[in-house]
Amino acid sequence: MCGIIGIAGTQPVTDRLVEGLKRLEYRGYDSAGIAVIEKLGQQTQLIRRRAKGKIVNLEKQIELEPADGMLGIAHTRWATHGAPNETNAHPHFAGRVGLVHNGIIENFTSLREDLKSSRTFVTETDTEVVAHLIDEAMKSGLSGKDAFAQSLKKLTGAFALGVIIDGVDGQLFAARRGSPLAIGLGENENYIGSDAIALASLSTRIIYLEEGDWAVITTDSVEIFDADDNPVKRDITIVTGSLAAAEKGNYRHFMLKEIYEQPESVSHTLTHYVDAFNHKIKTTKQLKLSGLDFKDIERVSLVACGTAAYAAYVAKYWFEQIANLPVDVDIASEFRYRKPALIKNSITMVVSQSGETADTLAALRYAQQKGLQTAALVNVMNSTMGREADFALPINAGPEIGVASTKAFTSQLTALLSLAICAGVERGHINAAQERGLIEALTQMPRLIAETLTLDSEIETLAHDLSKAKNAFYLGRGLHFPLALEGALKLKEISYVHAEGYAAGELKHGPIALIEEGTPVIVIAPTDELFEKTVSNMQEVSTRGAKILLITDKEGALKTKGMADATLICPEVSVETAPIVYAVTIQLLAYHAAVHLGTDVDQPRNLAKSVTVE
Ligand code: AGP
To answer: Is 609 a catalytic residue?
Structure first.
């Protein structure tokens, strides 16, 4: 996903723009650039430096041809329209206007048609059209501010914009519609950024623009207007997330750091949902979810993408087993198009680490349009989903920088299990003793995750074999079927080794035809009521030549002695919480396979941390 930084400063801005871009690297990108208004005596000029690939290439360009000024914008691009190359890299220029953009301008073709008689286009991008619109409006005599406001009204689609204009001294223009954008407040200077992490080295006083807002920012003023150009005031949030949270520390990759943070991050999640002192789950009232009472709800609709969707799939088992509450799970990009038969007394809960994923946000808005209660389980409470849902539920995992989601996944699971227990209590489906047992199991999580992390070097060895494979299967039953899906996704997205997650009982209905000598099959099977059946499925593939890695517990290892090519023994854990602990093994397996293959673990090719385009 693209990233934006802008500074209306009283000191040179280029170095800080580049520093800000580095904080945006985690979002995934394929080119980068900066633009500044450079003063030469009384003269000013709009200049830019851009480069394909990593930010280090941009730094080389700037070193070769320095560019600096007190007003500037910068951008990391994740290509949607137009190849990832220097020409299509932002910032884009048109006359006196320099512009950076995140999102998609859906009507750029018609706008380009309208302008082509008077304008010359040099790129394939939708973004360039917006710069021409503003410049053309200024040519008709409008001020920079009015030209910007007028141009916004001609756009359809999703965008966050940062604009500087030569001759409109000291003014930085910003707008947000569908893609998040924040303003950072400094001392005698102000900033814009895609999120608080991007601004972390510049400011902790953050204003989140609302949908449709646009703003004019100078060194000592911030004017914000709503979509109807009415001046508005927006809250200032003090962002407490320390810079350290967005640093790798002494870990080789953010992903490894975040895998190792899970005992702590799961603890933070538990603190919000569990009254550990009294061994009780917090009620919806205690969670300040007034108006949400699981007793009155007939159905829950969980909607998410990717890893978050697999957390939702696990939660379906928990809500139905612990609370007898029916749950539908939808991939967000399918949800609204299948025209779901949503029922009145149901709640639609979106699950999203970033709280900005376009497909998931669209699902939230669809449910709201249908008049349903909505909740958003997010890691970023100030995200668009966190602010638009009726109920914002935190996972408190702390900033997750690695594109591959790890600690957010286990915190999503922890929060969802907690909510299932809350629902079970409020619906009277579990008694005090059962609640106590579940709380006890939950509070063991941090310790058990820490214990599982001690398997790291053993997993690293096993991962080397896996990294040599062209294809792999992950199998699981019950709560571990979605975990098999997640394990396959982790391996695919960071090591680029193809993998499929499958319900262990389903493989014989076709995919088993793919099993040949040496095909790696990872079987996730703690000794629960489905263990024996899963072992039978394991033997079905083993007799056909599969190379089995069994992830189980001590009892499971004893019962399957000699059946698997390798066995990973996890700590004893309750049936309900097993997916949260076993998740660590599949995360480390994928991580080490990727490191062994030398891929870009934190920013895998083609991926973005949060996909804010549909
Ligand atoms: C997970 O490792 C992937 N990066 C991806 O599937 C991610 O889970 C998905 O894009 C959803 O992101 P969100 O949780 O921020 O909505």
So the answer is: yes
Residue 388, number of CB atoms within 10 A of its CB = 18
- Pocket of ligand 1, candidates 258, 303, 353: which has the most ligand atoms within 8 Å of its Cβ, to mutate? 353
What are the C-alpha distances in Å from 249 to residues 23, 245, 254, 268, 593? 14, 9, 9, 20, 22
Alpha helices in 496-527 (DSSP H): none
| Model confidence pLDDT, tens digit, residues 42-83 | 899 999 999 999 899 999 999 999 999 999 999 998 776 677
* 354 Cα: distance to centroid of ligand 1 (angstroms): 8
Task: Select the CATH number that applies to the domain covering 3-245 from these four: 3.20.20.140, 3.40.190.10, 3.40.50.300, 3.60.20.10.
Answer: 3.60.20.10
Closest of 444, 300, 303, 290 to residue 362, by C-alpha: 303
Average per-residue pLDDT in the chain? 93
Cis bond before residue 604 (omega within 30° of 0): no
Tell me, in angstroms, the distance from the centre of ligand 1 to residue 404's CA.
7
> 465-477: buried (b, 16+ CB within 10 Å) or exposed (e) per residue?
bbbebeebbbbbb
* Residue 489 Cα: closest atom of ligand 1: 2
